[in-house]
Amino acid sequence: MRKKLIINGKNTFVLSETLSKVLYEINVSRNKNVAIAVNEKVVEKMNWKNYKIKSGDIIEIVQPLKGG
Amino acid sequence: MNDFLAIGNKKFKSRLFMGTSRYPNHQIMLESLHAGRIEVVTVAIRRISLKKYNENIIDLLKKKYFILPNTAGCYTVKEAVLTAELAREALKTNFVKLEVIGNDEDLLPDVENLIPAAKELVKKKFIVLPYCNDDPIVCKKLEDIGCSAVMPLAAPIGSGMGIQNKYNLKLIVEKANVPVILDAGVGTASDVAIAMELGCDGVLLNTAVAEAQNPKLMAKAMVGAIEAGRNAFLAGRIPKRTFARNSTTNKGKIKLTKIN
């Protein structure tokens, strides 16, 4: 079933069931320094595979960038 | 001389911390970090692009540098704490430079939110280095709640105005039992030397080097100032007097006799 998520502030529609699969579906470039929060809670990388996504989830996908 | 800077469970030989933003390019950034004999670099945590390839700056830095993530641009306790938690997950480090600012014009710390954010992060076992005002009371409070260092500003971020309140900075240093790292507002090497002469344990800067006409040379100047200022502090300066005192004795000085 199609789910409506908010990923990095943007409405995004996905079919995937887990966080891991969402990342593939939306085809974002990933690296080992990417971190994710769902509904303001960090989801550790080892749990991405089993983390069930539901409609309305707010997802933040971040990584380190240049900063002072 | 074994003159290390200890923060949390880490010991650093270098007392100059540098940001990774605003350099003309990566090559100049890496050359400047090298010229400044840097160990600690700061990075920000930001949303990745959902459209284009995201370069990973950590690949450039991780081999040589200790990476200190910041919570730059956070306005609320919630934002800052979540950003710190994401940083811990992304970088596998408990260290965080905690920034909670009041607005995006002067980027000054918002103490009312900074202190509870620091408290929460200490509770969550972070090594918290808060960017704060040059206020001795605030610095003491941050220390008391368990911050591992305090990072009072010299002047607003990126302003290059140098230390605006030497007296406050001296009071902070005298009262602190944790390292004091001067953060933000440095313009040139003399600002760094003054901070170190006053007894600061280190300096964190970015724009002053990144936007200098020759960043690499400015980084070299900054680390020279760290060394000069640190040595002057350890050596113990003479007290200031409001009167002159000759350094050469008058004894044995020639005396002219009137010839007529």
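Chain B touches chain A through 38 residues (CB under 8 Å).
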